[in-house]
# Entry
Amino acid sequence: MVSDQAENKCIVVVGASAGGIDALARLVGALAENFPAPIVVAQHADPKGAGRLGEILQRQTRLKIHMVADGDGELEAGWIYLASPGQNLAIENGRVLSVARQPGHPVPSIDGLFESAAHAYGDHVIGVILTGMGTDGVAGVRRIKEFGGTVVVQEAESAAYPALPRAIPTNYVDFTSRIEEIAGLLGVLAAPGDGNIFDSQSVEVLLGQVRTRSGIDFRQYKPATIRRRLMRLIAAANAKSVADYMRHLNTHPEAYQQLVSSFLIKVTGFFRDPALFEYLRETVLPELIAEAREGQRELRLWSAGCSTGEEAYSLAILLAELLGNDVDKLPVRIFATDLDHHAIDFARRGVYPAAAFEELPPALIEKYFTRVDGAFQVRKDIRNLTVFGEYDLGQRAPFPHIDLIMCRNVLIYFTKELQQRTLQLFAFSLRQSGYLVLGKAETTSPLPRYFAAAQPALKVYRRQGERLMIPAPVALESLRHHDRPLRLGAIRPSHPRETTHEGMPPRWSMIDRLGAFLFESYIGIVVVDRHYDIVTINQAARTLLGVAGQGIGDDLIHIAQLPGLELKAQLDTAFRGAMPTAPFEVNLRDPGEIEQRCLQIACYPDRVASKEGRTEGVVVVIFDVTYQAKRRRELEKENAESRAAIEQLTRQTSELAGHQHALVQANEELSSANIDLRNTNEHLMIAAEEAEASAEEVETLNEEMQATSEELETLNEELHATVEELNTTNEELASRSSDLEQAVQEREKQLDHAVRTLGTLRAVVEHAPLIMCIVDKDSNVSLASKRYAEMVRHNGGALPAVGEKWLSRPEHVALRERDGAVDYAVRRISLPSDGGDTMVVLAPSS
# Structure
């Protein structure tokens, strides 16, 4: 929890190891004397060293240096705080504390410093990683990103030891810079922000530009989240306002990707929240597995907002553990989706640093991961259970028939409208009684009637109520390009949709749903302006034309991988006339593919976008007709072969007159087959038209197309999987053995010391000339002096003997001696031991 002292303040934490002293000296030497935040440094050092880091840095900087000792260190801007030799540093309540080191870990610990700073300062932390070896700092950076902080990493190429900068996952990094640039960047990031630089209209225009370029609509994210992340980028770009920052984006188009990455939430971990995954393992997944087996169907799970894939792989590992040898007998598919294509690419590779496995038992690491160059890669059998893809919860159609959806810590960044749309999407996707898992700060309150709490403490819900229709995309009509509405002419549904009660989304007709699905997945749609620049393009068109990236604003003629000039000629014809151009076909051969693809392309003037009779836009529709072209070529080849055979037989008519009738009949059969094939093709076209009017056929077609798409995705993912598995290295075993031997030796020393101490204590107590005994934590007398034993014998049970229970906390005990009864006062003294023993001494009250 962020402390009150840190609520409006900023802190910079720096971590470095090998070669870091030189890098630190260059960094602090470039900082301004009035630097607006405290800087706390964790530089790995020999714990036995004299600690001369402060002297070295003081010669390079005008800032004040402070070596943190026990109990001091109130943080002040413009000061650099260093650890005392052999000590760690921690941030707490606006102070920096000196903490004892942990055996076997580098000192001072970068992870420990970064994690404590994240808890204390939240999104006001700026973490800096400099040159170094190993992975100390990866877990700390991850914790900073969990709390919304900023991470700056030294450019690996400029680092003396690049291993540590390269160990930081790219999706955790906000800025990568050289040492000379980091100092200036920190000065800007640490400066107090000016809330007056924002105005709602400028932010709306900026988010519209982001939507146009990236295809991601952030207008449904919480404004506070967007502004906080946008503030950092504006400051780093030395801009004075949102409008100024937009001008920066126009001159630096590559900054758009940094902007999108900054908005997205990309922090996760393996088995994050162990209690939840234990509940899934013990209760939820066994039930879902049994239902899938009973229904002889596929088990389908969905990790929505999967970030870098740890959650999806955690689910796959749980299923593999539960299924055991039957993992190949039950079809399992885990969909893992996220907006950030960089995070999805990272997840597809399935290679993670050692610091990512904090919550994963070593046995599971060894069983389901392979060591690769100091990192760990997911094994192929686990990888094959998952399907990764880019997905926008605000715009895309849902996956059907899902058994379990996990969407944790995503809804909290959405507006109320987008939260409701997302829950409607989940309600449509889930089977009846299917499970929904949300984050700890999230609820189903925007749509409570469709979800019943199964485990409220863990935010696990079950689907209930009637079935929903596919929810409409959020704010589809509000998309803009150059301040004018985007229209697709006749492509948009022309009839009104019905609305439902209680805030339910509009109900799409089955024709609309089929059309939307086909346009998104199988029919390529591109809208271009008179400069041939792409105004709108869907995913199917990107795939069919081989367009990399978003493509918005690019010249279609140049980025479309089409041979010849036919496309330009057809576009020009469409711009000149009011009638659609005749479709034309092109053949493409993708790299690595044996067979070429055949595309059918048609250009339609966009009459809605026309001005004063002048066509301003053209809609390009692309169909993949590879199968039809291939079949046509096969029929043409068969027909040519048949004709050749007929000609050959005709030439031999004089010699083979008896076989002429058979040849004519064969020719008629081939012609009949051609007619049957043509009739079949026409029947299929008619059937496709009929499918638009039949709800049941539409749902069947939708499921079949979805299944085909999923199989293609799985096939594509298998191509990216690593084909070779490596054994765990002997170096790791040797390291573990060394740690174990050291722990055993330390334990033996402790036991030996305890035995010697016990013997000494026993001898002292037995020969002490006092009436005294030792009482253990269970109130039994475990040891007594000879004088105590004599008093036990002479007083007949007034005092308990060794092995008996001590009296219930008396303050005085009357004992009989030779000269009469004596009143003894009881004194209890706690012994400094882990056993909870107490020394009891009896002394005459006088």
About this structure: The chain has 25 helices and 31 strands. Confidence is low (pLDDT under 50) at residues 475-515.
